[in-house]
Write a structure and sequence with these properties.
By secondary structure, the protein is of the alpha+beta class. The chain has 2 domains: 6-190, Ribosomal Protein S5, domain 2; 199-347, Alpha-Beta Plaits. Helix content is 34%, strand content 23%. It has a 5-stranded mixed beta sheet with strand order 1-6-11-7-8, with helices on one face. A 4-stranded antiparallel beta sheet has the order 2-5-12-13. The protein has a 4-stranded antiparallel beta sheet with strand order 15-16-14-17. Helix 1 packs parallel to helix 2 and helix 5 (226-248) runs antiparallel to helix 6. It is globular and about 70 Å long. Bound molecules: (3R)-3-hydroxy-3-methyl-5-(phosphonooxy)pentanoic acid (PMV). (3R)-3-hydroxy-3-methyl-5-(phosphonooxy)pentanoic acid (PMV) binds at residues 17, 20-22, 36, 125, 127, 159-161, 214, 308-309.
Length: 354
């Protein structure tokens, strides 16, 4: 009678911030010092697939990441598991005669298997897709009734940027005001159909693991950078308003200007940290120069660039024509297997090769 298993599989794409989150005001609850805005990629590229299973025969919670068992003892996993369990509801499978009551979930254990179709922890925001997918799959398994914004506040406690992956399209993470963090959650700005001619290309400069984790980096920045305080108080609130406008009006010139400026300021804030943090390398800098020169020579921006906590370039092209030209330039200036280290291209959103 104890041999049954119930499984749920979910797939969640990663997201790329165009107005960056960097710095926590509360490390335990993962509450940020400013709002941020991101674009969620197409699930066909850069996504996590997670299967969660429950069975009375499971003796403990266990998790496998890309086929390798990992420990669930960390606070981030425990937060997500605890918060979803607290919201679990009755589940019934009439066909198989299985009934799980709200109370049973406290004693039942889960097994979790998660796969990334891209390198883990290489500055490609793998934790964003991972925790969003985990929380979503667990919520479905345990029949939690919370909507995606409410689930985002739970995913946030796994990894801050994860809260933005509960929605497609462009998403805003509102920093919130209250101390318990319940209003620090994600809302959709526009859905994925609103601006579907954008093409996202990720130039993988290096797929090695980053040297400074975002947790350590943010802590050091919050403790030492005066520029961060200025950014969070004076710059980001205005940029958030302008960015939402640009997205709603599909104003690429303004969107590109804000995206590049915010990426550059995020890396300036890293440089303003003591000791300074370097996430970009020479190849990253050369890509920036190449895009800036091109945009200037055309007169209106064709491509926006943004870099997270690593050297890989996320390039957002205005349309397929600009994306095709961009790929041509990248292949010319950064030929694969050359000493520039640029080793592959990942196409986000709509593949221009198909
Ligand atoms: O959520 P974390 O801890 O992986 O931090 C992500 C930070 C950045 O990717 C650099 C910026 C962002 O807003 O995603």
């Amino acid at each position: 009678a104890d041999s049954w298993v119930i499984m749920v599989t979910a797939q969640t794409p990663t997201n790329i911030a165009v107005i960056k989150y960097w710095g926590k005001r509360d490390e335990k609850l993962i509450l940020p010092v400013n709002d941020s805005i991101s674009v969620t990629l197409d699930p066909a590229h850069l996504c996590t697939t997670t299967t969660v299973a429950v069975s009375p025969s499971f003796a403990q919670d266990r998790m496998w990441l890309n086929g390798k068992e990992i420990s669930l003892s960390g606070g981030r996993y425990q937060n997500c598991l605890r918060e979803i369990r607290a919201r679990a509801c009755d589940v019934e499978d009439k066909e198989r005669g299985i009934k799980i009551s709200k109370k049973d979930w406290e004693k039942l254990h889960v097994h979790i298997a998660s796969y990334n179709n891209f390198p883990t922890a290489a500055g490609l925001a793998s934790s964003a897709a991972g925790f969003a997918c985990l929380v979503f799959a667990l919520a479905k398994l345990m029949n939690a009734k919370e909507d995606n914004s409410e689930l985002s506040a739970i995913a946030r406690q796994g990894s801050g940027s994860a809260c933005r992956s509960l929605f497609g399209g462009f998403v805003k993470w509102k920093m919130g005001k209250v101390e318990d963090g319940s209003d620090s959650l994600a809302v959709q700005v526009v859905d994925e159909k609103h601006w579907d001619d954008l093409v996202i290309i990720i130039a993988v400069v290096s797929s090695r693991q980053k040297e400074t984790s975002s947790t350590t980096g943010m802590r050091e920045t919050v403790e030492t950078s005066l520029l961060l305080q200025h950014r969070a108080k004076e710059i980001v609130p205005k940029r958030i308003v302008q960015m939402e406008e640009s997205i709603k009006n599909r104003n690429f010139a303004s969107f590109a200007h804000l995206t590049c400026a915010d990426s550059n300021q995020f890396h300036a804030v890293c440089m303003d940290t003591c000791p300074p943090i370097f996430y970009m390398n020479d190849t990253s800098h050369r890509i920036i120069s190449c895009v800036e020169k091109w945009n200037r020579s055309v007169g209106t921006p064709q491509v926006a660039y943004t870099f997270d906590a690593g050297p890989n370039a996320v390039l957002i092209a205005h349309n397929r024509k600009a994306a095709a030209q961009l790929l041509q330039k990248l292949l010319f200036y950064f030929p694969p297997n050359s000493d520039t280290e640029l080793n592959s291209y990942v196409l986000g959103d709509k593949s221009i090769l198909k």
